[in-house]
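Narrative summary of target 7.
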Amino acid sequence: MSLFQINNYYKDLDNLKRFGGSNNEQSIRPAFERLLHHYCQKRDFLLVNELFIKSKLNTNKLFSV
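Modeled conformation, tokenized:
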């Protein structure tokens, strides 16, 4: 991962915290997704943000980035 992308991530975090007024997981999640997307893109990986898995008890579980 390039230093440029990491610095952009920190800038995104600062902007989201400043303009969004919060630093909880839900509000800073887009910045982390963008960082992971750039990492995956260079390696020909596909980033799946959310994944639903059906359990043996027929309940759905949500896994997210």
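The longest helix spans residues 3-20.
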